[in-house]
Amino acid sequence: MKRIIGLAAFVLIWAFSAADSKACTGISLAAQDGSRVVARTVEWAATPMQCGYVVSPRGHMHQSYTPKGENGMKYKSVYGYVGIYTEYEPFIVEGINEAGLAAGLFFFPNYGEYAPYNPAHDQKTICDMQFVSWVLSQFSTIDQLKDAIDDVDLVTLDNKIGAVHWRIAEPNGRMVVLEIVKGVPHFYENTLGVLTNAPGFQWHMTNLNNYVNLEPGSAPDNTIAKGITLKALGHGSGMLGLPGDYTSPSRFVRATFFQTTAPVWETGFETVVQAFHILNNFDIPVGSQHVRAEIPKGLPSATQFTSATDQTAMKFYYRTAWNSNIRCIDLMDIDFKKIKYQSHPLDQVQQQPVEVVKVK
Question: Is the pTM of this model over 0.85?
């Protein structure tokens, strides 16, 4: 009963808050040594979320939800995985399994639409918020997922919530975006490696053409008339016109140009650090999404956590709004055959640690 009440509360909060407060920005990078890194932010400006990570072993039994309750598809894990959940433990939004397959959920309001819920199909029905868990527990490749997608019904727990779309990435660098529109799943090869929210992925790719003039470095001097030469007022003027707001289209453009102009570092760890630096640009100040009277207490940033996954070294990194120190879960240290299912909060204490420098 406690689980059902908790789920109902989560759905209620999500339904009334998500449209104005949920945002995500995802990027991907490669290192000189062949390491592949996917990274992303998760924003939620309505309230402080209770986030945690789960370690799910092979053979773990999963139970999917439907709009009627805990009566959807049951399935057993083929692969163990590590993932981060937001607010409700079964709802993994980002993770990686022991085969190196990574998956993440991104909010997709007003553009995605699932097929209507059919109670007769409960045994093959999966809640969209549990889709990442299903992918990570069942598959090692994207093609396996594509072969299986028509065998399940994806549903939302409440039509007021809106849809989500997903990023799935193999350790060899292949990435796809999955969007469900009018009940039909569409897979898009994402060779760029960037994803945000609505509109759809193809729209975002077309929109990049509006920024064909952007380039790294400084723009050259431009003589427009006799005696009148325009000169850059500072470094980086080649990026004049880069959108700076926090809407999904603008974040997609910024993420694209920060990612594609980033140096290619030698190792996976250096690349992970680079990913966190890039995503610093998407750490949304909490007040920017509220009028002053509605700023939630106890929330230092709308970007509640940022993660980076080294799919080659099998390391899962994260930091939070309360603790910007980077922490790491090493999947190579986990025996997914023997370990027990477990979950832990991302922050044992929601307080930024400070290293005191003593001057003698």
Answer: yes
